[in-house]
Amino acid sequence: MVTVECRNANPDELATFLATATDPDDDDIAGFTWRLNGQVVDGETADALQIRVAEGDIVTVTATDSGDATSAQVQAPCTPVGENQPPTVTVECRGATVPGQEATFLASAIDPNGDEIASYTWMVNDNEVTGQNGPSLTVIVNEGDVVTVTATDTGGAESTEATAPCTPVTNNQPPEVTIDCPDELVDGREATFRATGTDPDGDDLTYTWFVDGRPVADVTGDQLTITWADTTNVSVQVTDANGASSDVVASDCGPDNEPPAVAMECLGSITPGARAVFSATATDPDGDTISFSWFVNDVRVPGISGPLLSALVEEGDVITVVATDARGAASAPVEAPCAPISENEAPSVTVDCPDSLTPGEEATFTATGTDPDGEDDNLVYTWFVNDVAQTETGDAFTFAYSAGDEVAVKVTDEGGTSTVPETADCTEQNEPPTVSLICQGDLTPGEPATFLADGNDPEGGELTYRWLLNDRVVPGQTGPELRIVVQLGDVISIVASDEAGLDSEEATAPCTPVSENAAPEVTVECPPELSDGEEAVFTATGTDPDGDELIYTWYVNGDEVDDQNGPTLTVTYSDGDRISVRVTDTDGASSDEVTAECTDENRPPTVRIDCPAIVVFGEPTRLVANGTDPDGDRLSYIWKRNGEVVDGATGSVLTTIVDRDDRLTVTVLDGRGGMSAETSVDCNSGSRPRITVACPPELTFGKPAEFVATVTDEDGDSVENGRITVVWKVDGKLVTGTSGSSATLTLKQGQRVDVAAIDASGLVNAAMEPISCTGIVLRGPGSNGGATNGS
User: Fold this and answer.
1) What are 590-608's pLDDT values in tens digits?
2) Domain boundary at 50, 75, 100, which?
3) Which of 272, 403, 463, 713 sits a CA distance of 20 to 30 A from 262?
């Protein structure tokens, strides 16, 4: 498996891409293959690629392991775009956020251009935290503090603000408890029950155990050992250091006797200092007789075993009841759903709109109720849609929103005091309309045709239409119907606009005027695998310009296949079989017969280079590439010089001037995706020697004079190391006996001297032109002159 990430993917800049590969067989990764817009990036096999990208470029990569297995191709998650896009940022809280203590927040940013994040800006209650530009912030927080962060990339684009999803609060959270039964319960023997309490605030816990609904004195730990009876009922409750208690949890142990269930209600109002009446209702799954135990602040009320309790209550008193059946199974204690308070204050409520509000889609509204008497958790919510009360009583309400719906909510506290309904002040999200076109009947060139628009606005508003004929607006046509004379090839399209001016996407009529029946066309696809003697399925796709229905005719090796008129052919395939198909429309027009071109497996071609005797640097050279393909496919050639494609060089022969530092390569392609390995030109090569000669400073015709040639060679050959021979000529005649860089010659007036150099590779280079020298002419005897070897 391979993944890829981007670094600075900006148009016309050098971008960096990093690949990471893992192998399920723990094989080594042999290399990576990078592609830019589908073309292999030559010479790049490492896990990192640096390349200059243009807007819209797509970079992909595959990884190959040491066993030659290649991964699927993965696209880099960034596309160069002309404008720098801002990053997005999220923030999380690490650990608890406790007022007055340090809290740590972590930001995570993603940039769509692959830019690095240059800095983060942290704010507490809209005040910037100076000196904190990294992705983390550790700061002392107070109750109600709001922490936000933005991210800025290296191009200066800034994200929208993200808010930490936690707020320091001092509210104590109640603990929870679970209870485990002993491994064995035997009537009359000791049994040990174990409880596990957890507290969200990490407070120490005190355990209160109940046996048959009665608290067990002097046991405050997480274990209770009792002498078990088959009718015993054990339950437990935990209380944290701040006085918050869990629910009472009963053990699910013992015989089949099921404990009763109990509920309690308050009869009338509960006023501190006055007598209040509470009523209990119990049911027993086994039909046993039930008795009741009443408690005020966990102290049992003596002498009361019936379902009613009349007691003098004070503010803060907690009334509980336990129901016990005739066999001793007790219910969990149930607390009265009301508490004495001195004066009930009205609650308040606010309502929040959804992030987006789209007619026709579900929307969730949330409300926050507060009660001055501290009973926020016991508030009852009543939701209204267009002044009609709904059944939902929680702080969130989800329903299918319609355009113009008015949502409101009120809360009611335990004392029955309600707020006035608070209406949500929300803004609908306008979605663009949609439209499609319907053709009424056939379209005949030169005749009127009718087109109908089917438009839809998500908000239910009125639509207007803009009709287009061949991309030009048809004036005066804004309704959903158009009748117009059409000509051959005309294209009718339409755009719908809602009341806010938002346009739909353009829709094109699915019909085009044609003057006569046009012949259909067909293509055929080969099966994924072909095996001799095995069943194979070939699939054809026919198209008809007139939209006519098509009949398929299949052929195997030229013979028509009976009873096969659909788009698929199932046949037992033999190597070499020729499968073809033709389609015919309902008007009798037929396509050409198309033959499936299938091969079992495309094998890549190979190539070698035939060199000339020697490649002379700086001179035209003819190179011949011999490509072979095991499948006999036609080949094309890609010649490259120093990694760059040689324009126009697609054949097997390349004639070019080669410089000393040039690196020439060739690759062959078979036209079906097969490609040879890149082969380098490795030929015998060299530079021609260079030679110049000048006349002696003093020359007398008829007397010997020394001529000196200057010889240079870029291959390091020289006269001194014996790898260059100098040839001297006078008037085209070879001067024998000398091969060095100097020669003593006796010239006649008018004679010309030329010289050439031959290196060890046989490369020859002569001086540009034979030289003619001026000198002194002797008079008298011996003045005939001549060319002799004076060395």
Assistant:
1) 999 999 888 666 788 999 9
2) 75
3) 272
- Tokens for 629, please give them: 């393909």
3-state secondary structure of 378: helix
* 173 beta partners: none
In a domain, 767, yes or no: yes
pLDDT digits (tens, 9 = 90+) for 688-711: 888 888 888 888 888 898 888 888
For every residue of 572-619, DSSP letters joined together read E--TT--EEEEEEETTS-BPPPEE----S-PPPPEEEEE--S-EETTS
Q: What is the DSSP letter of 307?
A: S
Helix then strand then coil, in percent of the chain rounded to 5, is 0, 45, 55
DSSP string covering 57-83: --EEEEEEETTS-BPPPEE-S----SS
Please choose, from the candidates 234, 129, 226, 237, the residue with its C-alpha nearest in 3D space to the C-alpha of residue 175.
Answer: 237
CA distance 167 to 144: 6
DSSP state letters, 42-53: TT--SSEEEEEE
Encoded tokens for 506:
């353009």
| CA distances in angstroms from 784 to 703, 736, 748, 750, listed in the order given | 10, 21, 7, 12
Written as six digits, the tokens of 82 are: 């002309």
How many alpha carbons lie under 13 Å from residue 357 in its C-beta half-sphere? Answer: 17
Q: Which amino acid is at 175?
A: P
For residue 471, give every residue at least 6 positions away whose Cβ sits within 8 Å of its Cβ, in sequence order, or none.
491, 493
Q: Are 565 and 553 in contact (CB under 8 A)?
A: yes
Cα(607)–Cα(384) distance, integer angstroms:
80
Distance CA 691, CA 393 (A): 106
Q: Which two tokens stand for residue 248?
A: 């009472």
Pairing type for strands 162-163 and 147-153 reads antiparallel
The type of residue at 652 is S
**How far, rounded to the nearest angstrom, does the alpha carbon of residue 598 sit from its chain's CA centroid?**
35
List CB contacts of 70: < 8 A, sequence separation 6 or more.
Answer: 33, 62, 63, 64
Instruction: State the pLDDT confidence band at 784, using cuts at 50, 70 and 90.
Output: very low
On whether both 277 and 355 belong to a single domain, the answer is no
In a domain, 170, yes or no: no
Higher local confidence (pLDDT), 176 or 172: 176
Q: Using a cut of 0.70, tell me whether the model's pTM lies above it.
A: no
Cα 214 from Cα 320, distance rounded (Å): 12
**Co-location of 280 and 220 in the same domain:** yes
Give the pLDDT of residue 302.
83
Q: What's the pLDDT tens digit per position in 622-640?
A: 999 999 988 778 899 999 9
The C-alpha atoms of residue 444 and residue 701 are separated, in whole angstroms, by: 103
**Does a structural domain hold residue 233?**
yes
190 and 237 belong to one structural domain: yes
Range of the domain at 475: 434-508
Query: Is 656 part of a structural domain of the chain?
Result: yes
Residues 641 and 744 in one domain: no
Q: What is the pLDDT of residue 562?
A: 92
Tokens of 487: 């000509």
Question: Cα–Cα distance between 246 and 203 in angstroms, integer?
Answer: 13
CA distance 160 to 164: 13
Q: What is the DSSP string of 659-704?
A: -TT--EEEEEE-SSS-BPPPEE----EE---EEEEE--SS-EETSE
Domain count, the chain: 8
Regarding predicted confidence, which is higher, 374 or 281? 281
Same domain for 319 and 192?
A: yes
Beta strands in 22-70 (DSSP E): 29-36, 39-40, 48-53, 59-65
* Listed residues 423, 454, 477: the one ending a domain: 423
Question: If you average pLDDT over residues 743-763, what whole number do you get?
Answer: 86
